[in-house]
Amino acid sequence: MKVATYNVNGINGRLEVLLRWLEEASPDVLCLQELKAPQEKFPIKALEGAGYGAIWQGQKSWNGVAILARGQEPHLTRKGLPGEPEDEHSRYIEAIVDGIVIGGLYLPNGNPCPGPKFDYKLRWFKRLRDYAAELLELEVPVVLVGDYNVMPTELDVYKPERWTNDALFRVEVRDAFRHLVDQGWTDALRHLHPDERIYTFWDYFRNAYARDAGLRIDHFLLSPQVASRLAKAEVEKHVRGWDHSSDHAPVWIELHDEPMMPADE
DNA sequence: ATGCCCTCGCCTCGAGGA
Question: Where does the record place the site Important for catalytic activity (predicted)?
């Protein structure tokens, strides 16, 4: 089973690229972020034509998240995180697909820092941690995946010293991510590639992709019940080089069908 | 220190992104 994430930076402006990649990669599940489209402008017909069922939470101009499933309808279990009812940003959507809870998220950027946007990012992170702890208590397969807008370590930034005071790399934000992972989650890409420089985002500015000046900000966090099934984790870097690409690349993990149990268990 | 490039809106510039 292949589970993927892709910050599309505008689903309608990106539709051709998205359909091309779906045809090429055929993920079983795909979480999308930054739809930048209101609910009624989500291109459901085109995605159904490509063989996918979908649930989504749109928003005019900004944010917006979706979950696609190949050959089936994702079973919606939640829209939005608990803890701040007045928060109207479309940043979290959750579904069950093939027995796995898929939480698709788009964490706030937080710049400029300091400021209200940074405060909102930290609050959102806290809400995510509180909710993630509840999910872990269920002891079921859970994948919390999407654009976290955090580079967890210096290995995840092309030039760490340039990013020290940025909301994506501030120590408070790295701490928040680490505390989340330390609840018992597995960072899938880093787990399988402990020493590699891996990026999932390259700025449109400064010829960043050609220079490989990237950031690793799109992450898969796996509950123990699904971490035991992790087989592969890869970034579709070449897609970032396509014409009219998003500034993020798609990222995916491959899961074994059955848990890999220790021999003596 | 800032803009760079790109997306969206309701409209040709501004806001936001990271």
Answer: 218
